[in-house]
């Protein structure tokens, strides 16, 4: 069976903060051939633990976790690895791989450049 | 004079958390023709207010602020606009534009898809 992907956001009690992550999950589902799910580290549903257990119940034993974080602070160095370790302890057959956060990927600079370029074009059209 | 760009990160007291933002700033400087600077909203230097004042002193009266945030939570709806309003009050000739956060841009989904695709290629090479 293919590896499933979880895109992991921090989480917030602010529902307006969650909406863009749900939009991103929808865009990813439309574009990816392998299963993709959104999960939150804390503060709102669905939590990482819940989504891992659901994917496991669906038959996935290999899950990659891509953090929607700009940088690896304490959450990604300590808290999330501890969450994953607890999940592995509960289900030793699970292979859980924590990827580098998206903000550390070289192509992330490309998208920022393209957003800036697009904004400059829009500004010159309206001036 | 052209418009300057500030890429705005949240800020942290964790120096390891800051490093990827500095790398991103360097990549942007190499790729953009207009001036670009990194600033933090709070917790570490250089702060937004400092960078705006420095760019203003260099002669820029028009500055776009691109938030390196995934979503517009309370910080981008309330705190940053209040910081910008105080800066405008101090220097009425300043034109400060707060752009949508990068995570809400449609092309952000593209970069996540490309990161996932690259990871899958890497995995299949090592299996």
Write the layout of secondary structure elements.
2 copies of one chain form a homodimer.
Chain A: E1 4-9, H1 15-31, E2 36-40, H2 48-57, E3 62-67, H3 74-90, E4 95-98, H4 106-126
Parallel strand pairs in A: 1-2, 1-3, 3-4
The oligomeric status of these chains comes to homodimer
Task: Describe the strand arrangement of the main beta sheet of chain A, using strand numbers.
Answer: 2-1-3-4
Radius of gyration of chain A: 17 Å
The biggest beta sheet of chain A reads: 4 strands, parallel
In the predicted model, the low-confidence regions of chain A spanning at least 5 consecutive residues are none
For the terminal residues of chain A, how far apart are their CA atoms? Answer: 54 Å
Q: Pair with the most extensive interface?
A: A-B, 50 and 49 residues
Beta-strand residue percentage of chain A: 15-25%
Protein name (chains A, B): Sirohydrochlorin cobaltochelatase
Keywords (chains A, B): Lyase, Metal-binding
InterPro entries (chains A, B): CbiX-like (IPR002762), Sirohydro_Cobaltochel/CbiX (IPR050963)
GO molecular function, one term (chains A, B): metal ion binding
Any key phrases for this structure?
Rossmann fold; homodimer; 4-stranded parallel beta sheet; Sirohydro_Cobaltochel/CbiX (chains A, B); 127 residues; 51% helix; alpha/beta; 4 helices; lyase (chains A, B)
């Amino acid at each position: 069976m293919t590896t499933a992907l979880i895109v992991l956001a921090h989480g917030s009690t602010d529902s307006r903060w969650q909406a863009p992550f749900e939009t991103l999950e929808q865009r990813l589902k439309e574009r990816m051939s392998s299963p993709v799910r959104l999960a939150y580290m804390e503060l709102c549903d669905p939590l990482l633990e819940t989504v891992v257990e659901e994917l496991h119940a669906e038959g996935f034993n290999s899950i990659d976790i891509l953090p929607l974080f700009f940088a690896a602070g304490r959450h990604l160095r300590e808290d999330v690895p501890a969450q994953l370790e607890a999940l592995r302890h509960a289900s030793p057959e699970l292979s859980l791989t924590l990827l580098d956060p998206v903000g550390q990927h070289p192509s992330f600079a490309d998208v920022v450049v393209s957003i800036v370029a697009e904004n400059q074009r829009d500004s010159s059209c309206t001036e």
